[in-house]
Write a structure and sequence with these properties.
single chain; alpha+beta; 4-stranded antiparallel beta sheet; about 20% strand; binds ribavirin triphosphate
């Protein structure tokens, strides 16, 4: 299979606890390559756009408030089957259901403050990457 790219966010609960390197170690151990990365303070507008698919959900306001509560690290990850592979490495949304060895099992605090985001499909990966990175910032 050809190389694929996915979009990742190391969320505020993880950056606040200085876990950026620990999360990146799990990403790299899984065979994914970090081909773009920057630490940013998301604006409310950026967070609302990013999670627009969830805007009717009861947790939307809480989710946006959380995503702007501290800096995040946005990333592009590259590898074979990167989208599915990263979802596997992340573990289930709710850390209580996340498998042993996954990022969320190791680090997530709750279903809301769950340490990482990863794209769920090729189309969303392309959209999410384009929201935060220009082409010349990604070096594969
Ligand atoms: P993500 O989009 O962040 O990678 O997470 P996901 O696919 O595993 O989960 P999704 O259903 O897309 O939910 C997006 C994020 O919203 C927060 N959430 N809070 N309080 C709640 O019940 C609740 N449910 C979801 C989480 O931060 C989740 O990652
Ligand atoms: Mg999702």
């Amino acid at each position: 299979m050809a190389l694929e790219r996915t979009f990742s966010i190391i969320k505020p609960d993880a950056t606040e606890r200085n876990l950026t390197g620990a999360v990146n170690a799990k990403i790299e151990e899984a065979g994914l390559r970090i081909v773009a990365q920057k630490r940013i303070q998301m604006t409310r507008g950026q967070a609302e756009t990013f999670y627009a698919v969830h805007k009717e959900r009861p947790f939307f306001g809480e989710l946006v408030d959380f995503m702007i509560s501290a800096p995040v690290v946005v990333q592009v990850l590259e590898g074979e089957n990167a989208i599915t592979k990263y979802r596997d490495v992340m573990g289930a949304t709710n850390p209580e259901q996340a498998a042993e060895g996954t990022i969320r099992k190791a680090f997530a605090k709750s279903i809301g403050e769950n340490s990482v985001h990863g794209s769920d499909a090729a189309e969303t990966a392309a959209m999410e990457i384009a929201q935060f990175f220009s082409g010349n910032e990604i070096v594969g």
